[in-house]
Design brief:
Elements lengths: L1 H12 L12 E9 L2 E13 L2 E14 L2 E14 L4 E9 L5 E7 L4 E8 L2 E8 L4 E2 L1 H9 L8 E8 L4 E17 L2 E14 L3 E9 L5 E8 L2 E8 L1 H4 L13 E3 L12 E8 L14 E5 L5 E5 L16 H5 L12 H11 L5 H15 L2 E2 L8 H7 L1 E2 L1 H14 L4 E13 L2 E15 L2 E5 L1 H4 L10 E7 L7 H6 L3 E9 L1
């Protein structure tokens, strides 16, 4: 999602828009870099067919996870009238070994009928078109009305087919700067673009446009690195990629070696921003408390909540809990395969506390091929393949819990591990599950349990929670690299 948003904003909101509204069809290419290494490409095409405009954004990127290559492919198409009214959309996501297809039609009355297909799983969702939301052509037309004058700022709402929701976008025109375009240095105007949504939080990128309003470069910080997208020839964009190791950037040093963090009563962490001018938002949950200190550091105290007996399925009215009972395209809790596995896991128990621990233990054994080659699989994919890493453990655990009527969500952040690849005693990017039992969100970690640990514990620092879609990981991705852990206090 992030690469598609960067491409769309870089080419549409920041620039790449001629002085007239009637512009011919065109296709443009960009090379994608991570810290100077070419890892993929992006393609933007705008095709006018009669009274319709089809805008397609493609992105293809390959990274290494502990020396295992993972390729992520996305394609998103918006269909609009010539004056920017939404008619429909399509999306294809391939981040593991099975594709997810989304197609939608926007009815004249504003009702959206969207269909999702992942493998053999299909679903239909009906919802109202988000108020004021635009797609690519509508956003391009809004951009035509703006002036490239330093200090000018404007906002819009961008509908994302892959998220099936609107993202708030703000663009602010900055000063002219000398910018390196693959060895060619030119003066371009800097445009700061900020995207905000409940799933991804706030993401900021820098775009660089020429005097004709063509976007030539976009830069976004991620996990202490920079993702760069630079306009180039088709031949260079599609040329061979370099190798970029992503997992190493998800490592945080620990001030000291920790012992049995999964069984510690509480651990207090002191976090310090690497950029004192920046801002880091750490969520408070039932398991962790957050305090901002006068010296700019942040104290995060993790005290896992104990499970208490409660009958299930959930019959309460908590809105967040109810939302996390629903099936979605990545946590397909209403599929027959998932329901069957959930029934097998919980057996005859009627107690939610016992049921979730049984599910955690079941998933820990069920996924028998721990594999970093999976980019991000759905619960149903994991149920079929039995392979993956922490994100696959977490989505399958959540799906089984929801299938028996226990609210479950995905938490992402960092967790202390004694061994992570070549590293010892460090914090690594991680995902786990939280379940709502007796009015509290309780941590489960089937991935840790699969290694003989107690599962979730005080060694986990939550950076965000979400409903299971990969966009929920963006807050973690963009938070890592912004801070360091400078002190740790353990209470046994």
């Amino acid at each position: 999602m992030k690469l598609k948003c960067l491409l769309l904003i870089g080419l549409v909101l920041c620039g790449c828009k001629p002085k007239t509204t009637q512009t011919p069809s065109k296709t443009e290419y960009m090379a994608v870099f991570i810290d100077g290494k070419k890892v993929g490409y992006a393609i933007h095409s705008r095709i006018v067919e009669g009274d319709k405009v089809k805008t397609t954004e493609k992105a293809n990127m390959t990274i290494n996870r502990l020396n295992v290559p993972v390729t992520m492919k996305t394609e998103e198409t918006s269909i609009e009238t010539l004056d920017g009214k939404p008619l429909g959309f399509e999306s294809v996501q391939d981040m593991s070994f099975m594709q997810t297809f989304i197609s939608g039609v926007v009815e004249p009355n504003g009702t959206v009928i969207a269909k999702t297909r992942t493998g053999q799983f299909e679903s239909t969702k009906t919802f109202a078109w988000p108020d004021g939301a635009l797609m690519a052509e509508g956003l391009r037309l809004v951009g035509l009305e703006q002036e490239l004058v330093e200090g000018n700022e404007y906002s819009a709402r961008l509908f994302s087919p892959s998220l099936m929701m609107a993202i708030d976008v703000t663009a602010k025109v900055g000063e002219k700067k000398e910018v390196d375009l693959l060895g060619r240095v030119v003066k371009l105007t800097e445009v700061t673009t900020t995207m905000t949504s409940p799933m991804t939080g706030e993401l900021t990128s820098l775009g660089y446009v020429d005097d004709e309003l063509n976007a030539l470069k976009a830069v976004t910080p991620m996990m202490g690195m920079n993702i760069e997208m630079v306009t180039c020839s088709k031949e260079f964009a599609l040329s061979k990629n370099d190798t970029a190791e992503l997992m190493e950037t998800a490592i945080l040093e620990s001030p000291k070696k920790l012992d049995k963090t999964d069984s510690a009563k509480s651990i207090q962490y002191t976090l310090r921003l690497k950029d004192t001018a920046g801002e880091l938002t750490i969520p408070e949950t039932d398991n962790q408390k957050v305090e901002k200190q006068a010296n700019g550091t942040i104290l995060v105290t993790v005290t896992p909540v104990a499970l208490k007996p409660e009958k299930f399925p959930y019959k309460g009215k908590d809105e967040v809990a109810l939302e996390n009972l629903k099936s979605n395209r990545f946590v397909q809790s209403d599929s027959e395969k998932i329901k069957s596995l959930a029934k097998e896991a919980v057996g005859r128990t009627k107690d939610a506390a016992e049921a979730v621990k049984k599910i955690e233990a079941f998933v820990a054994k069920y996924i028998d091929n721990r594999n970093f080659s999976v980019g991000y699989a759905t619960a149903l994919e994991v149920a079929e393949s039995k392979k993956g890493d922490c994100s696959e453990f977490s989505v399958l655990t959540a799906a089984l819990c929801r299938a028996v009527g226990i609210p479950a969500r995905i938490a992402v952040g960092v967790a202390y591990v004694e061994q992570f690849g070549k590293y010892q005693g460090v914090f690594g990017g991680h995902a786990w599950t939280e379940v709502y039992v007796d009015g509290k969100w309780i941590g489960l970690d089937a991935s840790f349990a699969s290694h003989g640990l107690d599962g979730y514990g005080s060694g986990h620092i939550t950076l965000s929670t979400g409903n299971g879609t990969p966009e929920g990981f963006m807050q973690m991705v963009f938070s890592i690299g912004q801070f360091e852990i400078v002190n740790v206090k353990v209470e046994k």
